Amino acid sequence: MAGGGLRAAARIRAEADARGISRLPVLDGEGPLAVRRIRSAGPEARVALVGAMSAPLGGDRLTVAAEAGPGARLDVTSTAATIALPGQTKEPAHYDVRLSVEEDAELRWLPEQLISAHGSALQVTTRAEVAPGARLLLREEQVLGRTGEPPGNLTSRLTVRCAGRLLLDQELACGPAAPSGWDGPAALAGHRALGQLVVVRPELAEAPARPQLLGELAALTPLAGPGLLVTAVAPDALRLRRALDEAVRVVG
Q: Which residues form the signal peptide (predicted)?
């Protein structure tokens, strides 16, 4: 605890052994960022983030780093939604996610929703570095306010690079402090749940995905490189998850 907020970090690294089975030589977490190994029926390593205490609160600084070494397969999820709450300081909380997928590796980053509670302020930064021939499936879901309450202030930036080249760099801001229009017809149009699905895989460089609508709530956009982006909005978390799950099915 320093400067009115909590500092905590978690690090996960998967490495493939001689048989192609992924192991977890690094699995460390502290404070609210507890990490647990999950039983796997295949060669991949599976990990869950476990919320061990209320966080992020105002002023907190949390960092999660997940790495898939050469040829490794790593699946990361969480056991419950993350709720951003007001703290004793008016400073925003910071939640930084750093993902690294090395050559011929695969990382599936599929946490539960992030809920921006009334009165909270959170800045989320997600950065993914993907090596040539590697694969990434990344899902982000944000819910603006708990049931029956207005949202807090949420700023989220997502950056994805492949082989050192930028595939995606986008930022959104929601809540009372966001620029006007964030909830208007050209943006969320009154919806309170929004999410992104990023897919990076080498075959998309040769056969890019086709731009298309996915039902009434989601749209697929090819990226300039071996990737695609699905963006979705929905009235609530349940319909958002259904839309993104359907997107996973469509893109294979």
A: none
Please report the pLDDT score of residue 243 as a whole number. Answer: 95
- pLDDT band at 2; cut points 50, 70, 90: very low
With tokens 């009434």, the residue in question is 216
The total of structural domains in the chain comes to 1
Contact of 33 with 54, CB cutoff 8 Å: no
The pLDDT, as a whole number, for residue 186 is: 77
Domain range for 22 is 7-187
Q: Give the C-alpha separation, 221 to 215, whole Å.
A: 14
Does 246 reside within a domain?
A: no
Q: What angle do CA 126, 114, 222 make, to 5 degrees?
A: 50
Report yes or no on 225 lying in a domain: no
Helix or strand (DSSP H, E) at 12: strand 7-16
Per-residue pLDDT at 1: 44
